[in-house]
């Protein structure tokens, strides 16, 4: 089975699918599946644009809305994860995954599916330690903080994925697993991207959460994006016992989708020829979701996942074969994911722009159906319940305050809030300022002599194997902040007045940071990566 893998799409679906069609015409190569490693930008309308954490001048509609409306249809089954530049309000509707358009499937905050017997997993977003232990509490309309925290990886998703026992064939993450650069052509990477050196040498580039999952899941393939550079690595995993067979992971990071860039990779994957052509649920993953349902948290409170430390009565939430069998029986052994895509927002109309439309918190019927079928908590419904409870408490407290003010005869005027996110900072703290310092050389095909600093490249040979050291082990409660974290603290933005989240009701679809100090110019993150015409800037 031929699988096409793409890096950051940035909403350029037409370009991506046109490239696939060109491959077919020129080389007779037709992929059976397309995987996208984040920054997909499933933007349906102007409200979605305002929920995307990018400077206003880089908010472009692009072409996804044509696929959402039905004007166009993806020519190949497309499965993607979320990155750090997404219409977060749209993806939030599908926390467990679902169709964002016909033939285009989002894996959710974390997820596992099957296609032709190939097991595909992924985790959306990027790692930020200050949000890692929180619940998924954000909802639109977002403020200056939540518009970013909405796409930060949470420990509960990592915990769920770590309950999996069966082998994973393909895994996707947006940011790279921390330390993976030690298993590829690191010298060439630093030659091209010299500003990575400090983080590479201090081993702070990448996600410790993804690194933890890499060590646990040991997938055959791991695909990432985010840094806008193509890079290959090969990791031989340590075995836990003499009986355990050695496992290795082929890692590949993809460039962003731009004209004249090699942003697609075609991989041949062994598959089950007797399996159908439909995307399917993964029975073990469904069983894990059911087993961990009681751990769902929709508050800002930080908490740790259960551990074997004497503080928890239960810490192992992996599932038995019997639990997996029960899932199969519930589905009558029919694992096909229903094609139940539903429009939940108005589609962009170029002839009738609506720049002032406000984003609303929506419950997607796909999520409602999925949760009802498997007895799971609808995260968005729980968020709304929490908001309503908080609103009732707020009204009670307000009445008490009014009584107190009446007795004193004085009160401050209430402040006004503005929900317009178009005034967001022109600097996104989550951006990587990556100035191109060389050509667009493909790190996956660089030929170098094998050495500790020059392991063999991905596309040529995997015979020279490096063993992953124990020092790579990262705890799930790792609190190390990367240089990116420091940027988030140093990035100064315009003061943005915000409207209370409680002021907007949930929309249920039926049926079918402050101050004006200067900003330091540092060689780290670059806004211009959003502009497709600027090919010499990367994120």
Automatic annotation (TrEMBL):
Keywords: Hydrolase, Iron, Manganese, Metal-binding, mRNA processing, Nucleus, Zinc. Residues 416-428 have a biased composition (Polar residues). Residues 235-380 form the Lariat debranching enzyme C-terminal domain. Residues 383-395, 486-506 have a biased composition (Basic and acidic residues). Residues 383-462, 474-539 are annotated as: Disordered. It is found in: Nucleus. GO terms for cellular component: nucleus. InterPro entries: Calcineurin-like_PHP, DBR1_C, Dbr1_N, Metallo-depent_PP-like. Residues 396-406, 432-443 have a biased composition (Acidic residues). It comes from the Eukaryota. Its cofactor is Mn(2+); Zn(2+); Fe(2+). One of its GO terms (biological process) is mRNA splicing, via spliceosome. Pfam families: DBR1, Metallophos. GO terms for molecular function: metal ion binding; RNA lariat debranching enzyme activity. PANTHER family: LARIAT DEBRANCHING ENZYME, RNA LARIAT DEBRANCHING ENZYME. Belongs to the lariat debranching enzyme family. This is Lariat debranching enzyme. It comes from Eudyptes chrysocome. The gene is DBR1.
